[in-house]
Design goal:
Strand content: 25-35%
Strand order of the largest sheet: 1-2-3-4-5-14-6
Radius of gyration: 23 Å
Structural class: alpha+beta
Helix content: 25-40%
Number of strands: 19
Shape: globular
Number of helices: 11
Length: 389
Amino acid sequence: MEIKFVPEEYKESIKHVLNYCFSGVSGIGESFVNETYTYENCLGCFDEDKLVGLLYIYPYDMHFYGNTVPMGGIGVVSTLPEYRYYRCASNMLIKSVEIMKDRGYAFSALAPFSYAFYRKYGWELGFNSKRNIIPVNSFKDLGTGKGQFRPLTLEDIDSINQVYRNFYVKYNGSIDRDKDNWKSRLKRIGENRNYGYSFSRQENGLNGYIFFSIESGVFYIHEMVYDSIETKLELFRFIYNHNAQVREVNWKAPLDDNTMLLLDNPRIEQKIEPGMMIRVVDVARVLRSYKYPALYKGGFTINITDKWAPWNNGTFKLIIDQGTAEVNKIEDDTADISCDINVFSQVALGYTGIEEAIEIGKITVHNLKAAEDMKTIFKEHVTYMTDGF
């Protein structure tokens, strides 16, 4: 088996692999080839000249403590059934990490069919969401009814992106969308009962928006963004206006969502659901990009085990001063703490803090004082992503 980029002459083979492996998604092969495929991002597994597996690297920038870092989204990982025990997917994943490192990516993310499978290659759970299931009548008296709602169009790209960035920049892991991303998203409005509306308090400007679909009496919120609590309440009022069509609202909200506190009857159904997985591609780059406390001055060492990325495997020494870190890889197996790349990825993203990781036995402490310092530096931070790939 050979892992390499897939040339354009294999487009029909790409369609075949995707249509077979994702049979539940109508026309996925055709839409992928026509709208997504580029040679430099499409990895394939070949048995001589036969394409038997696929993996695509989506190039993104990701919000990370108020800044952005390059992130590779991994999608359409697939293998024809007769080759599923030949390590095709495994070898494509390993190769993708090497490619992403060479391209300067800090992180990688993916939506797993199996957490256990991808965990073997360094990806780890990095996102949760709060599933809210709310009777639509709970929104009856919210909002004032002032302002204007209208369907979103391609002309809204700049204004919708500004509202999106202001809302999502506080969440680690959210995608910094470009115009092509927005065009694709807005063009899907109207397909399969998917809708998108903007809200404006005044004639000019955009204060919030909502993407949603309606199915079997359920109002599914795919994405809802607002610039203030006032705008959020008007969006809820808009949802209530559908009460003749729907009985309940279903929304995967960020973990810090406070909707329950806005309702007269807070007895709603809420579930915490695991989501995307995250992987640090380049430990040194991530450590240099991390947001350190401005007043902290000191240093420590971290030993990381990464079976698939030798540039990450080993001991890193950090010297932190005035919010920035000097990071060097050193030839020393003795470190203040040690962990594998999976746990480091969670800690770096903020999905879990050092203290919690130590408590559940995912980090080994060799220097108690240094570990206490690190607990004040590497803390939990809300992660959230609504993009799929």
